[in-house]
Amino acid sequence: MVKVLLTGGSGFIAAHIIDILLERGYDTVVTVRSEEKGQKILKAHPNTPKEKLWYVIVKDVAEEGAFDEAIKSNPPFDYVLHTASPFHYNVSDPVKDFLDPAIKGTTGILKAIKAHAPTVKRVVVTSSFAAIVNVKQHAKVYSEKAWNPVTWEEAMDPAQTYRASKTFAEKAAWDFIESEKPNFDIATINPPLVLGPVVPYLNSLDAVNTSNSRVSNMVQGNNKDGLLPTGTFLWVDVHDVAFAHVRAIEVPEAGGNRFFLVAGLYSNKDIADIIRETYPQLEDKLPPKDSSSDMPADVYGFDNKKSIEVLGIKYRSLRESVSDTVKSLLEVGV
């Protein structure tokens, strides 16, 4: 049986990856930061035997040797999906809060695999559109070929720290492969804004993942005076991102590739309009109906052909994704 280690098992994307791995018959071990988080994952899958789903604790991914014990396994691992990386906007120390966990967490897992897990054939790393985008001069069409040109000095600006952390972490992964020539290859998954159902066992309303916060804020009436700026005009559904991670270990030719996972363009106005149409009872909580879209006429384009042709992704629609997200938020008590 094929065995997979999934890091960052209590994250938003990882929770959906677990479901797909189990559906497809993989033996799955997740890393979590605490016993409590591990137990929550097991309780959410009550009919899954422990030989099919288990957890190991990695308290701090930035620590030297953090993954050394987690990667040792009998039977050994065949693949690793590395999703663990911080994503929030509470930056007090850019290096400690973001850059170290992202970069050292990524190089740390790769070093541990090389040293202790010779059976691993491929590692899939969760990167981001943040490692592709150039906020100073947008590309006409974004694809996997583009890299964020952010510098270490610019990363000290809290507005740039998250994007820099993803850029430097992904570059460190590719550099590791080139310099260390390990027993495995890598693939990276680069999504923009990720929308989709929250996972009740992981999320309190206070801790709804950052991507979905724009939807939860609308549903809770926090933006009824007007729309907030959209920011990034590209989005993708979490189911498609999770599926891409699993397909990237299943498709031989995925190795050595970045995959830009993007379903299309959107604005916050589009999200508000979909909520209004699909959940009319929330009308009084939403931004004004006559709010205008902030999407520029010359907004950048995107090329997602590689994800469709190599991984076989069939992208969900924005309407389906937003509607599913709202449904899940109402179920957890918005």
Automatic annotation (TrEMBL):
Gene Ontology MF term list: oxidoreductase activity, acting on the CH-OH group of donors, NAD or NADP as acceptor
Domain NAD-dependent epimerase/dehydratase: 4-257
Pfam families hit by this protein: Epimerase (PF01370)
Keywords carried by this UniProt record: Oxidoreductase
InterPro entries reported in the protein's UniProt record: Epimerase_deHydtase, NAD(P)-bd_dom_sf, NAD(P)_dehydrat-like
Superkingdom of origin organism: Eukaryota
Sequence similarity: Belongs to the NAD(P)-dependent epimerase/dehydratase family. Dihydroflavonol-4-reductase subfamily.
Xref: PANTHER family: NAD DEPENDENT EPIMERASE/DEHYDRATASE (PTHR10366), STEROL-4-ALPHA-CARBOXYLATE 3-DEHYDROGENASE, DECARBOXYLATING (PTHR10366:SF564)
Name under which the protein is recorded: NAD(P)-binding protein
